[in-house]
Design brief:
Length: 97
């Protein structure tokens, strides 16, 4: 397993965990009292920022791994913008999650 494959697996686990935590916050927001709603809205915002960051890195790692393994290209994280990576991976039908 390459360095990037390991990073991809770890990042995928982080994404799944964060999604789960966000869903729990949404449940507390939906069914909780005012105090709970306030507390869990703040927590949800924080978790969403972390999720966005993990998704960014997941896409970067997937792009680097795809380029190195399948195209033999030399690329490092950050060589392409987030949007360029997403569009490229989608156009080549590379599954991210």
């Amino acid at each position: 397993m390459t360095k990037y494959e390991e990073l991809i697996q770890i990042t995928k686990q982080n994404v799944q965990s964060l999604k789960s935590q966000i869903n729990m916050c949404v449940a507390y927001i939906t069914f909780g009292d005012r105090g709970m709603k306030t507390k869990y809205r703040k927590q949800e915002e924080s978790l969403q920022k972390k999720l966005d960051e993990q998704m960014y890195w997941l896409i970067q790692y997937t792009m680097v791994n795809y380029m190195k393994e399948y195209l033999g290209g030399v690329i490092e994280e950050g060589d392409y913008t987030h949007e360029e990576c997403k569009e490229y991976l989608r156009s080549n039908e590379v599954k991210i999650i």
